[in-house]
């Protein structure tokens, strides 16, 4: 096992923000390439309302096509019981990802209900997943700040983490959806949540809006976190958090750790090839990932 696990969210968190529809065929190629560069955990679909996120309306079709590879687990978002039914009947995904926000207003904009109501929506999902033997990952958004309310109460994040963990989540991912967190805040957050959820079951989901995602990854690592959500090329954003930038770039996370002798299991060169393909053949727009751009520039200068 690598020392650190990179949880790739590009095909979901990344693509959901793209204005032009990406074909199921391109998504399949993307997922297949990611799975073969050494990324073992990939979030590939979202069983939310297709009216809310049209880009990901083809989740069933995609799950029917992705290759079954040893050591690779696929996950898909499930907002409610209807989503869970779609997840189950599609087959092909191993992990159900439930999600909600730590702040009321973002939760309402994103899920059209209050935090307490969303916990009620998730209760039957968690019960059914447990009966079906399906592992559940819980993501809590806006843990470092809310685009509508500003500061978010640390106590609210801790109590949601406890609640979802006690209901059976095998992992809790703490999401800085709008990228406002600072290293000290991330350390404090991890320390506080670790009082309720074992450290090895805590992940961090950091966005790069203020350019702090990578220092926050480092802070999370120092606080004991070993799983980091990331998106190839720094793709992404949140459709219900205006102005939020993409996730921390997978290449940046891999380069940070590998450069420090901490293994990720990811082949950086082949990942850069994949991001290059996505950029030029699929999205036709420049992706921001720093290490990605640097490696491309170096190859270009050396004529490669
Ligand atoms: N998949 C597909 N359709 C769904 C669904 C799901 N998971 N959940 C509800 N629906 C359908 C209902 O069947 C209903 O359809 P109908 O009008 O044909 O009867 C319609 O959506 C409204 O259902 P309701 O339960 O009232 O949902 P809502 O309008 O309150 O929306 C969510 C709730 C969760 C479905 C919606 O807010 C959503 O999809 N949010 C996700 C946003 C997101 O993905 N953000 C980015 C990720 S962080
Ligand atoms: Zn995100």
Q: State the CATH superfamily name.
A: Aldolase class I
Query: How many extended strands?
Result: 8
Enumerate the distinct ligands.
Answer: coenzyme A, zinc ion
CATH architecture: Alpha-Beta Barrel
Low-confidence stretches are: none
User: What is the N-to-C order of secondary-structure elements (H for helix, E for strand)?
Assistant: EHHEHEHEHHEHEHEHEHHH
Rg to the nearest angstrom? Answer: 18 Å
Question: How is the main sheet built?
Answer: 8 strands, parallel, barrel
What does the average pLDDT come to? 96
Tell me what you see in this structure:
The protein is of the alpha/beta class. It has one domain: TIM Barrel (Alpha-Beta Barrel), CATH 3.20.20.70. 43% of the residues lie in helices and 14% in strands. The protein is built from twelve helices and eight strands. The protein has helices spanning 10-14, 24-36, 59-63, 81-90, 104-111, 115-132, 154-166, 183-193, 213-222, 250-259, 268-283, 290-301; strands spanning 5-8, 41-46, 73-77, 95-101, 136-141, 171-176, 202-206, 227-230. It has an eight-stranded parallel barrel, surrounded by seven helices. Helix 8 links the parallel strand 6 (171-176) and strand 7 (202-206). Helix 2 (24-36) packs antiparallel against helix 11 and helix 8 crosses helix 9 (213-222). The longest helix has 18 residues, at 115-132. It starts with a strand and ends with a helix. Residues 13, 175, 177, 205, 207, 238, 247 line the site of zinc ion (ZN).
């Amino acid at each position: 096992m690598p020392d650190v696990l990179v949880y790739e969210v590009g095909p979901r968190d990344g693509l959901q923000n793209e204005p032009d529809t990406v074909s199921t065929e391109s998504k399949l190629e993307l997922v297949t390439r990611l799975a073969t560069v050494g990324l073992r955990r990939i979030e590939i679909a979202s069983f939310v309302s297709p009216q809310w996120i049209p880009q990901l309306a083809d989740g069933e079709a995609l799950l029917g096509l992705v290759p079954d590879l040893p050591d690779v687990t696929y996950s898909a978002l499930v907002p409610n019981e209807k989503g869970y039914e779609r997840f189950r009947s599609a087959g092909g995904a191993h992990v159900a990802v439930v999600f909600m926000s730590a702040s009321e207003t973002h939760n309402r904009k994103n899920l059209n209900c209050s935090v307490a109501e969303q916990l009620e929506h998730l209760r039957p999902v968690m019960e059914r997943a447990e009966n079906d033997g399906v592992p559940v990952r819980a993501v809590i958004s806006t843990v470092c700040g809310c685009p509508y309310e500003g500061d978010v109460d640390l106590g609210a994040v801790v109590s949601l983490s406890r609640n979802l963990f006690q209901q059976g989540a095998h992992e809790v991912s703490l999401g800085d959806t709008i990228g406002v967190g600072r290293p000290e805040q991330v350390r404090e957050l991890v320390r506080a949540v670790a009082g309720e959820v074992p450290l090895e079951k805590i992940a961090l989901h950091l966005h790069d809006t203020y350019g702090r995602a990578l220092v926050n990854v480092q802070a999370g690592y120092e606080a004991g976190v070993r799983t980091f959500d990331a998106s190839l090329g720094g793709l992404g954003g949140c459709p219900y958090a205006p102005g939020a930038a993409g996730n921390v770039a997978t290449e940046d996370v891999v380069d940070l750790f590998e450069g420090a002798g901490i293994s990720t299991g990811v082949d950086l060169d082949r990942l850069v090839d994949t991001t290059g393909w996505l950029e030029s053949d699929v999205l036709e727009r420049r992706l921001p990932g720093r290490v990605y751009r640097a490696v491309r520039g170096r190859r270009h200068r050396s004529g490669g």
